[in-house]
Amino acid sequence: MDPSSNIDWDSLGFDYYPTRSLYRMDTNTSGEWQDGGLVPFGDISISPAAGVLNYGQGAFEGMKAFRSAKDRITLFRPDMNANRMLQSAKRLVMPKVPTSKFIEAVTMTVKDNADFVPPYGKGSLYIRPLLWGTGPVLGVRPAPSYTFAVFVTPVGPYFKGGVKPLKLKMTRNFHRAAPHGTGNAKAIGNYAASLYPLKLAKETGFDEVLYLHAAQDDLLEEVGSANVFVLKGGILKTPKLGGSILPGVTRDSVIHIAREILHLDVRETDVSIDDLITADEAFCTGTAVVVTPIGEVTVEDDAYSIAGQGEGEVTGKLRGLLTAIQKEERDDSFGWITALD
Ligand code: COI
After folding, report:
1. Hey, where are the domains in the chain?
2. What is the Rg, in whole angstroms, of the alpha carbon atoms belonging to the chain?
3. Are residues 117 and 110 in contact, defined by beta-carbon separation less than 8 angstroms?
């Protein structure tokens, strides 16, 4: 039986589901890419001294493929993810995956797993490109060889219960990234460091952690899995990319949609705690979370509700416009969609 025929498309969450195949490409010990290709989906064996296991030399990407209203499979801005992986590779001293190779690998993997792309309107195929140090190291140094892989898995909403306003825990006890650190790279270690603050937040009834700038702790940085926006008096603000913030593809797309379709005044700037707790609306953006409203934020022990703890009108419009472009329900005036034939 076809492995995808068991999937209940109506109850997809954001969970790992094995699929048919993954793409794999390795370097030789001089860091030169060798021929890559699809291999059966399955575990990967690795040296116990691999750079990724010992020193966290790894980066990833998050993308989605959609079954669109035109009954074809689409990718959303794959060049942006390819480019961000180039930046992550540079920061972590890994060989660059050329953009054309990155997009070819993603395309091959999605096409070979096309039956795992949920039906139109029922979720998406999450695409996870990975780059890691495979070769053995003992002293702290870059690994001698690397692996680039792409796997895919069908997903629904990131947060349980779908798009519902989030309860965020703002923390002064932990930072996500430091100035001049690796915050603007999609380094695996950034996410390892976020697990403990996230555990503490979840244990006390929160959905996610809101991090502050490590050097100026009255300024917002980002949420563990997403960028953050606040709207007040018609001005939409998001923390500027100062090196410690992840340059989100959805963040960039929302900025374009807000400016060019909704004609909002959008500012990439400093965003203070006060901006958030007095906001008319606030929301998070990310490939996984899409555009998710923030309903409440707790600062120290004080809880502040935002947009009456519901979803603001602009937040809903931005998500609607973004997902309508992704699913080809409206014109792609930005040229963001790549259709796979
Ligand atoms: C994504 O939004 O795709 C990400 O990579 C964030 C991840 C923490 C789920």
Report:
1. 3-155, 166-326
2. 20
3. yes
224 Cα–ligand 1 center, Å: 9
The alpha carbon of 68 and the centre of ligand 1 are apart by a number of angstroms equal to 22
Distance of CA 23 to the CA centre of its chain: 20
Is domain 3-155 in CATH 3.30.470.10, yes or no?
Answer: yes
The residues that are catalytic are 186
What's the rounded mean pLDDT across residues 230-237?
96
* Cα–Cα distance for residue pair 288/14, rounded to 1 Å: 8
Q: How many CA atoms within 13 Å lie on the side-chain side of 162?
A: 6
Cβ(288) to ligand 1 under 6 A? yes
Question: Predicted confidence band at 125 (pLDDT cuts at 50, 70, 90)?
Answer: very high
> Beta strand 337-340 with 63-67: parallel, antiparallel or unpaired?
unpaired
pLDDT in the model for residue 322: 98
Closest-CA residue, ligand 1 atom 8, reads: 225
Residue 161, amino acid: G
Fold of 166-326: D-amino Acid Aminotransferase; Chain A, domain 2 (3.20.10)
The overall pTM is greater than 0.90:
yes
Q: How far is the CA of 304 from the centre of ligand 1 (A)?
A: 26
> Which positions ≥6 away from 90 have C-beta within 8 Å?
96
- pLDDT > 70? residue 1: no
Q: Ligand 1 pocket check: which of 287, 291, 292, 322 to mutate, most ligand atoms within 8 Å of Cβ?
A: 287
Q: Is 95 in the pocket of ligand 1 (CB under 6 A)?
A: no
Counting from 1 in the atom list of ligand 1, the atom nearest the Cα of 289 is 2
Ligand 1 centroid to Cα of residue 226, in Å, is 7
Q: Look up residue 249 and give its amino acid.
A: V
Q: What is the pLDDT at residue 294? A: 96
